[in-house]
C-alpha cells in the first residue's frame, strides 16, 4: 500500500470513528431525555436552539410528538396535503401557546414537518 493510500485509509477510519462517537453520544442523550424516537430528539434540539430550557423543550416536544404521531398513523400521510395541514396547525398552535418567537414559528413548524416526513 502506498503512503498516500495509507493516509487516505487513516482519514477514512478516523472520520468513521468520529461519526460513530457522535451517533453513540446522540443515542445516549436521546435515551437520557426519555425520547423513544429520533424525531423527538431532533424536535427537542430545534426547540433548545430557540429557548434553551430543557423542561419546556421536553414538554413541548412531547406535545408535538403526540399530535404528529396521531396523524402519522394514517396510511399515506406523507403524501396527503390534508395531513400536513393538520400537523402544521397543531404544531403552530403548540408553539404559539408556549410563546415561541412569532417570527420563527412558521419556519420551525415547517422544519418539524420535514423531520416527521424523514424520521417517522
Helix content class: over 70%
Low-confidence stretches: 1-7
Overall shape: it is globular
Number of helices: 5
Total domain modules: 2
Radius of gyration: 18 Å
Q: Report the sheet-strand fraction.
A: under 5%
SSE pattern, N- to C-terminal: HHHHH
Residue-averaged pLDDT:
83
Number of strands: 0
Gap between N and C termini:
44 Å
> What structural category do the secondary elements indicate?
mainly alpha
Largest sheet: none
Structure description:
The protein has 5 helices and no strands. It is mainly α. The protein has 2 domains: 1-33; 36-119. The longest helix has 31 residues, at 3-33. The chain starts with a helix and ends with a helix. The relative contact order is 0.11. Mean pLDDT is 83; it is low at 1-7.
